[in-house]
Design goal:
The chain has 535 residues and is α+β, with helices and mostly antiparallel strands. It has 2 domains: 245 residues, D-Maltodextrin-Binding Protein, domain 2, CATH 3.40.190; 232 residues, Dipeptide-binding Protein, domain 3, CATH 3.10.105. The chain has 16 helices and 19 strands. Strands 1, 8, 9, 10, 11, 12, 13, 16 and 17 form a 9-stranded mixed β-sheet that branches. The protein has a 4-stranded antiparallel β-sheet with strand order 4-5-7-6. The protein has a two-stranded antiparallel ribbon with strand order 2-3. Helix 9 packs antiparallel against helix 11, helix 14 packs antiparallel against helix 15 and helix 15 packs antiparallel against helix 16. The longest helix is centred in the last third of the chain and has 17 residues. The chain is globular, with a radius of gyration of 23 Å. The N terminus is likely disordered.
Length: 535
């Protein structure tokens, strides 16, 4: 299955290498303004500053990688027109000629090499991509060899989010290193300014207020959208965001709380746009420190004990969360990746049963019969009903004697606190993950592998089983589909048996749209202006 998919991707890529029209819409249509809202702002314009789906998706309107994907997630050429695995550890990319950055500078191999170096800098949050690359070698101005540390049969699938920056522009503006989003590097020029090659140009940027995009008249592709100006506004409150859509202040809003779907169906001129999302929402524990940073339990770390982690798992009633908070629209999960992801095995997706008595017994057996207090970090404007989920989890854990101090914050503060750039400053947290490659290896190496040698970049709690890390390396190079699936299954079983994390569910895609527009909804919740048509 996997091998056939890679073969098919390669054939389709080579066949499409000469094509430049990958947009949808009506050519020659009247120019229109399109307004949309999300529950939080894009965190930075620096394409290497934050590995986060919404931020990277927003940036993909004006920055591009070597490859891209269509709305149905088919891999397509972008700044590379073709690629070939010329040696086991060498992928050769032929670059698109005649491309210019928004300021008019020509794009060439030097920009690719510069960008490879830039994602290795201290402020970069794209270390998970950097670890895939040993070095980049310039063959000529429009040919680059990317050398991998070991054979990597799926490298192209992993490069959509690796955006290329202009070497000359970056040097001119002193932004040769990536923006550190913790707050001490907000003066980095690339944080508030952009110079990509993509179909749109950043005309105006007011953080937390609005960002305006306009078409790039010199884009190499064929942008058939009739949007002449795209105005993005962050609207944090769910009710305000939905009201803005119904009143016509915005043409699209996401996410829409699932409890508001009927409200949109009953309103004139708007409707919900829903579907399955390939994002898994999960809980994680600090299993690395000998003493938790934020807990009443001093001198020890309860989460180092598998029985405590399992007690938390079995104290959470996922059916109640599904029915009462997600209105039946979520899919409870035991795996760290969704059914849409290559490598998903439904036979391993059965959750441990909800059992409060069992959870209490496990805590007592581990020496915590009286429970303890721990702080839970949670975003309140990133995932569908995120804060409500955390509140429900806190209420359920109280039944087994665990008191949760819930710290729910806007995503900018949340990510700045818990990510690697701030030393994984968390004891217990909620996070969501969509594998950017739509392959299980991405989730395994990013979330489940030990935090060594560039692996485990988003393993915030430091879960570590050396066999899982070894399996992540083996999965990356295995080309036999059956053998590769067996390795993925082994990693999944180990992680589940040890309760490395607590998978909760796959959340639904939940957008609201005006009847005056058509948009494309990708299963990874990425939104592209070039697929918008205003009627």
């Amino acid at each position: 299955m996997f091998g056939q998919r890679v073969m098919s991707v390669r054939r389709s890529v080579l066949a499409a290498a000469a094509a430049v029209g990958i947009a949808a819409g009506g050519a020659g249509a009247a120019a229109e303004t399109f307004k949309w809202a999300f529950q939080g702002d894009v965190q930075t314009l620096d394409p290497h500053g934050l590995f986060e789906t919404f931020t990277l998706g927003f940036q993909s309107n004006f920055y591009e990688g070597l490859v891209t994907r269509t709305p149905d997630l088919q891999l397509q050429p972008a700044l590379a027109i073709s690629w070939e695995n010329v040696e086991p550890t060498v992928w050769r990319f032929t670059l698109r000629q005649g491309v210019t950055f928004h300021n008019g500078n020509p794009f060439n191999a030097d920009d690719v090499l510069f960008s490879v170096d830039r994602i290795r800098t201290e402020g970069s949050d794209l270390k998970v991509v950097a670890t895939l690359i040993d070095k980049a070698v310039k063959v000529d101005d429009y040919t680059v060899d990317i050398v991998t540390p070991q054979p990597d049969p799926i490298l192209p699938l992993q490069l959509e989010i690796f955006f290329i920056m202009d070497k000359e522009w970056s040097e001119q503006h002193g932004t040769t290193e990536a923006t550190n989003i913790r707050g001490d590097d907000q003066g980095n020029y690339a944080n508030l300014n952009a110079n990509g090659t993509g179909p749109y140009v950043v005309k105006e940027r007011q953080p937390d207020v609005r960002t305006v995009l306009v078409p790039n008249p010199d884009w190499w592709g064929d942008n058939k959208s009739n949007v002449s100006e795209g105005i993005f506004t962050p609207i944090g409150q769910d009710a305000t965001r939905v009201a803005a859509l119904i009143s016509g202040d915005v043409d699209m809003a996401h996410p829409v709380p699932v409890q508001d779907w009927k409200r949109l169906e009953d309103a004139n001129g708007v409707s919900p746009l829903t579907g399955p999302e390939a994002r898994t929402i999960f809980l994680g524990f600090d299993q690395d420190r000998d003493e938790l940073l934020y807990s009443s339990m001093k001198g020890k770390n309860p989460f180092k004990d598998q029985r405590v982690r399992q007690a938390f798992y079995q104290a959470i009633d996922m059916e109640a969360i599904k029915d009462k908070i997600m209105r039946g629209a979520s899919t409870p999960s035991n795996l760290m990746f969704a059914p849409e992801i290559n490598g998903f095995n439904p036979a391993l997706n059965e959750r441990l049963p909800y059992d409060v008595d069992k959870a209490k017994a496990l805590l007592a057996e581990a020496g915590y019969a009286d429970g303890f207090t721990v702080t839970m970090d949670c975003p309140n404007d990133r995932y569908v009903n995120d804060e409500r989920i955390c509140q429900a989890v806190a209420s359920m854990l109280a039944r087994i004697g665990v008191k949760i101090d819930l710290l729910a914050q806007t995503k900018s503060k949340y990510f700045a606190k818990v990510l690697a750039q701030n030393g994984y400053d968390t004891s217990f947290y909620l996070l969501g993950w969509t594998p950017s490659t739509f392959d299980a290896h991405n989730a395994i190496v990013s979330l489940m592998a030990c935090r060594v040698d560039g692996k485990g970049s988003f393993n915030l709690g430091g879960y570590c089983n050396e066999r899982v890390s070894e399996l992540s390396d083996l999965i990356q190079v295995e080309t036999d589909p059956e053998k590769r699936q067996a390795l993925i299954d082994e990693a999944s079983r180990i992680h589940a048996d040890e309760v490395g994390h607590i998978p909760l569910h796959q959340q639904p895609l939940s957008w609201g749209v005006s009847d005056r527009v058509t948009v494309a909804q990708r299963p990874d919740d990425i939104f592209h202006l070039q697929y918008v048509t205003v009627k």
